[in-house]
C-alpha cells in the first residue's frame, strides 16, 4: 500500500514546509537562512520515537481495516449472532458508548464479565428469561 | 459494620476489581486499542494508502506524504495524520489541506473521481504513553491555500514574517530563541 517515490518539480513546496507558516513565520525564514540549528539529544530521541509511533500506528490502522467488532456476548447468546436486536445493540455500543471514556469503561467491564456470565448461566432458562427481559427493555429504549 | 452492609461492600469491591481488570485489559495492545476508539466517521472505512508520496504542479506546486488515507463507507476520501508531539491546530490544518489538494488535483488512479471530505482527522498522542485524542480539522479551500502559497513565496522579501504567539513553541521547538529571535509575540493569540 506504500506508494512509489515521486518526482518533485522545481519550486514545489512540501506540506510540512507550508505548515510551518502556521507555527511561526520567523522560524521558517530563520530555518531557511541559517538551517534548523543544533538539534538536542532530547529532540532527536523525540523524533525517533515519533517515527516509531507512526510506523506502529499505520500498521494498527491497516490491521483494523474494515474490521467490525462483532462481540456482544450476552445479546448473542439470547438473540443469536445475526439477530437484528444484536446488531442494534452493537450499533448503540459503537455510536453511543465508545465515544465517551465512561462508555468505554462500561464496555470493557461488560466484555470482561459477559463471557463468564454466558458460560455460567447460559443454560439456565430462568437466567436467559431475565437476560432477555432486560435486553428487550434496552432494545426498546434504544429504538425510541 | 452491620451484616446488611456486607453484600453491598462485596459488590463494591467486585466493581472496583472489574474496573481495574478492564483497565489492565485495555492496556494490552495500546495501538489496537487506540484504533478501536476511532471516531464514528471511520466506521466501515478502509485504509487505501499509507505514506503515499503525492505531488501536483497545478494549481500550485506542492508535494507531501499523508500518513493514512481512508475510503469511508460513504465512498469519500478521508485523510488522517498522526501527531505525537506539540499540537498546533493551524499547522495541522495547513498540512491536511495540502494533502487534500494533492488528492483533489492529482491524477492518482485510486483517488480519481472520489470526493475528498471537507475535514481531516488528526490523532494526537502516543498510545500507551500519553493521552490519545482525535480531532476533526476543517480543510482550507484552494483559494485559502493559494493565498498561503503566495505568502510563503513572498516571505522574507516583500512581506515581513510574523512571530508565533506561543511561548511554549519557542522553548520546545525552536533553536533560534535567544540567538536570532527574541521569542514569542505576546500580542498574538495562540490556537491549539
Keywords:
heterodimer, A: 144 residues, mainly alpha, 2 domains, 7 helices, 72% helix, 1% strand, elongated, B: 192 residues, alpha+beta, Trna Endonuclease, Chain: A, domain 1, five-stranded mixed β-sheet, two-stranded antiparallel ribbon, 5 helices, 34% helix, flat
Question: What report would you give on this structure?
Answer:
The complex is a heterodimer of chains A (144) and B (192). With 144 residues, chain A is mainly alpha-helical. Chain A has 2 domains: 15-63, no CATH class; 73-143, no CATH class. Helices cover 72% and strands 1% of the residues of chain A. Chain A has helices at residues 15-23, 25-34, 41-63, 73-79, 84-97, 101-121, 125-143; one strand at 13-14. In chain A, helix 4 crosses helix 7 (125-143). The longest helix of chain A is centred in the middle third of the chain and has 23 residues, at 41-63. In chain A, 20% of the residues are buried. Chain B has 192 residues and is α+β, with helices and mostly antiparallel strands. Chain B has a domain at 30-140: Trna Endonuclease, Chain: A, domain 1, CATH 3.40.1350. Chain B has helices spanning 5-26, 30-36, 89-105, 142-154, 167-173, and strands at residues 46-50, 54-56, 62-64, 68-71, 77-83, 119-124, 133-138. In chain B, strands 1-4-5-6-7 form a 5-stranded mixed beta sheet, with helices on one face. In chain B, strands 2-3 form a two-stranded antiparallel sheet. The mean pLDDT of chain B is 82. The chains are: A mainly alpha (144), B alpha+beta (192). Chains A and B meet through strand 1, helix 1, helix 2, helix 3 and helix 6 of A and helix 1, helix 2, strand 1, strand 3 and helix 3 of B.
Amino acid at each position: 500500500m506504500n506508494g512509489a517515490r515521486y518526482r518533485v518539480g522545481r519550486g514545489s513546496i512540501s506540506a510540512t514546509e507550508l505548515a510551518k507558516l502556521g507555527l511561526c513565520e520567523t522560524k521558517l525564514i530563520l530555518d531557511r537562512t541559517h538551517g534548523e540549528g543544533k538539534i538536542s539529544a532530547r529532540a532527536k530521541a523525540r523524533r525517533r520515537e515519533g517515527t516509531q509511533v507512526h510506523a506502529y500506528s499505520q500498521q494498527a490502522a491497516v490491521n483494523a481495516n474494515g474490521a467490525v467488532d462483532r462481540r456482544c456476548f450476552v445479546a448473542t447468546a439470547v438473540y443469536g449472532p445475526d439477530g437484528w436486536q444484536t446488531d442494534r445493540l452493537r450499533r448503540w455500543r459503537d455510536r453511543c458508548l465508545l465515544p465517551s471514556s465512561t462508555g468505554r469503561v462500561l464496555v470493557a467491564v461488560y466484555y470482561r464479565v459477559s463471557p463468564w456470565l454466558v458460560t455460567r448461566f447460559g443454560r439456565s432458562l430462568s437466567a436467559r428469561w431475565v437476560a432477555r427481559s432486560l435486553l428487550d427493555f434496552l432494545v426498546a429504549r434504544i429504538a425510541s | 459494620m452491620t451484616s446488611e452492609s456486607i453484600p453491598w461492600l462485596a459488590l463494591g469491591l467486585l466493581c472496583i476489581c472489574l474496573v481495574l481488570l478492564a483497565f489492565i485489559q485495555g492496556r494490552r495492545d495500546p495501538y489496537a486499542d487506540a484504533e478501536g476508539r476511532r471516531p464514528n466517521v471511520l466506521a466501515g472505512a478502509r485504509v487505501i494508502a499509507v505514506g503515499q508520496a503525492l505531488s501536483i504542479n497545478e494549481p500550485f506546486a506542492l508535494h507531501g506524504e499523508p500518513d493514512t488515507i481512508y475510503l469511508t463507507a460513504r465512498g469519500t476520501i478521508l485523510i488522517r495524520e498522526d501527531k505525537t508531539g506539540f499540537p498546533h491546530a493551524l499547522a495541522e490544518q495547513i498540512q491536511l489541506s495540502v494533502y487534500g489538494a494533492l488528492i483533489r488535483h492529482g491524477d492518482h488512479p485510486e483517488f480519481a473521481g472520489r470526493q475528498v471530505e471537507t475535514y481531516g482527522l488528526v490523532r494526537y498522542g502516543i498510545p500507551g504513553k500519553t493521552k490519545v485524542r482525535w480531532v476533526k480539522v476543517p480543510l482550507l479551500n484552494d483559494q485559502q491555500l493559494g493565498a498561503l502559497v503566495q505568502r510563503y513565496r513572498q516571505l522574507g522579501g516583500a512581506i515581513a514574517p510574523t512571530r508565533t504567539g506561543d511561548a511554549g513553541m519557542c522553548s520546545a521547538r525552536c533553536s533560534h530563541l535567544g540567538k536570532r529571535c527574541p521569542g514569542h509575540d505576546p500580542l498574538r493569540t495562540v490556537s491549539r
